[in-house]
User: What shape does this take?
Amino acid sequence: MIILGIDPGSRKAGFGLIELKGRKINYLESGVMKYDCKSDFMDRLGNIHLSCAELVKIYKPDQIAIESLIYVKNVTSLAKLAQARGAMIAAFMNTHKSKVFEYSPNLVKSTVTGHGHANKESVNKALKMMFKNQIQTDFGTDDESDALAIAVCHSILKDHAVKKSDRLFSGGTSLREAFK
Assistant: This one.
């Protein structure tokens, strides 16, 4: 099974691809999609949609995991992030209806590092240990490593997930509550 993890953004978005063979997780690819910040925001949303559709076309994932919205102080930034995330989800739903899942940032960190408030360095270190013979260089950005962590989180929790409206763990569902 191939899983695509997405760390959404309106200026750049990380993606990470892993392959799940039984209980073994193999690293396939990761990177960052960058969007022209100087272009009109509506045009950028179109580019975001197209780039996500292209990702699906190229890598043919079986399931897609995306990070849920995070709290930000700037309402304008939150609105743009929400719109960008919506464009991404719309692109994915064309081919992956009922195969797109979301995870909160704290659940991703908790699943990958064992601590829900882990910093970026801890996430990177955990991923490097997990893929020690598969990743040769450092991650280009935190967006890239976060996306890979989202894919790993889904690979671990997918069989224990409580589905609700085609999504996993939206918002603040704790891991303990999910397994009750």
In short: The chain has one domain: 2-178. The mean pLDDT is 87.
